[in-house]
Automatic annotation (TrEMBL):
NAD keyword on record: no
Membrane association type: Multi-pass membrane protein
InterPro entries in the cross-refs: MetI-like, MetI-like_sf, PhnE/PtxC
One Gene Ontology molecular-function label: ABC-type phosphonate transporter activity
Name of the protein this chain belongs to: Phosphonate transport system permease protein
Predominant place of localization: membrane
Length: 271
């Protein structure tokens, strides 16, 4: 919309504020936020000598990234990728199987209150901790290796997938569900014929997205001993073996790109 022409009885149009109508309150709040940001940045203790040294290490790392070494430690690299891929596939499948009943139970429009409360609590606990924190706990419980990583990714998948599935079920077209109820259908038939067709394309898309996330997270949790390519990457960085680290990062990028294109194709076919 363009501004109105100036003249008697006419004023220039201005877009109304989205959140705070009062101009004085807007200035006060935005000004306070700016002051807080400046004060917070002032408390950051920057060691410029260390920054200078870090730039030199960064240059060596970038050089190794540009000239990656895929052969010297090829055995360790492919073993790490095999572990990461195994953890990712198994954790995604198990996480989906567990997320579906939890997500259905966490949907307020189809679940009784006791079931709803329990399932929402499970989702909240799963989402309360970052994957690396969960990995530290499982490594302490079950030792180093991919089993701890598998449990970590499965647990994290439940919080992610069940929450979004429950929200999708709560946002379904109630007319279709009411039509199924009007036929005298049971609760299971309602879920199977009234809800499942509406949320299935979204569930498939979210599952593929979670597969992508789980592979990337497998590279992170390996740093704390949960197996996967992250352990190999961490070892390379500790040894300043930047050309091998660069090779690992390139392979991770290629795999994520392949998974992204593949998931986009599958989502289009499903929808």
């Amino acid at each position: 919309m363009t501004a109105a022409a100036s003249g008697p009885g006419r004023r220039t149009w201005r877009r109304p504020p989205v959140l705070i109508p009062d101009r004085r309150w807007r200035i006060a709040i935005y000004g306070g936020a700016l002051v807080y940001l400046v004060a917070a940045l002032a408390t950051v203790d920057v060691d410029w000598m260390r920054v200078t040294e870090g730039m030199d290490r960064a240059g060596r790392f970038i050089q190794g990234f540009l000239v990656p070494d895929f052969t010297t430690r090829a055995g360790d690299i492919w073993k790490g990728f095999e572990e990461s891929l195994t953890m990712t596939v198994c954790a995604t499948i198990v996480g989906i199987l567990l997320s579906v009943p939890v997500g259905i139970g966490a949907a307020r429009n189809i679940a009784p209150m006791p079931v709803y409360a329990v399932c929402r609590a499970i989702i909240a606990v799963s989402r309360a901790f970052q994957e690396i924190v969960i990995a530290i706990l499982f490594v302490a419980m079950f030792g180093f290796g991919p089993f701890a990583g598998f449990l970590t990714l499965s647990f994290a998948t439940i919080g992610f997938l069940a929450k979004l599935l429950a929200e999708d079920i709560e946002d379904i077209d109630e007319a279709q569900a009411e039509a199924i109820r009007a036929t005298g259908a049971s609760w299971w038939q309602l879920v199977n014929y009234g809800i499942q067709p509406q949320v299935m394309p979204r569930l498939i898309g979210l599952s593929l997205y979670r597969f992508d996330i789980n592979f990337r997270e497998s590279a992170v949790i390996g740093i704390v001993g949960a197996g996967g390519i992250g352990a190999t990457l961490n070892t390379s960085m500790q040894r300043y073996d930047y050309d091998t680290a660069g090779a690992i990062l390139i392979l991770i990028i290629l795999f994520v790109m392949l998974a992204e294109y593949g998931s986009s194709y599958i989502r289009k076919r499903v929808q």
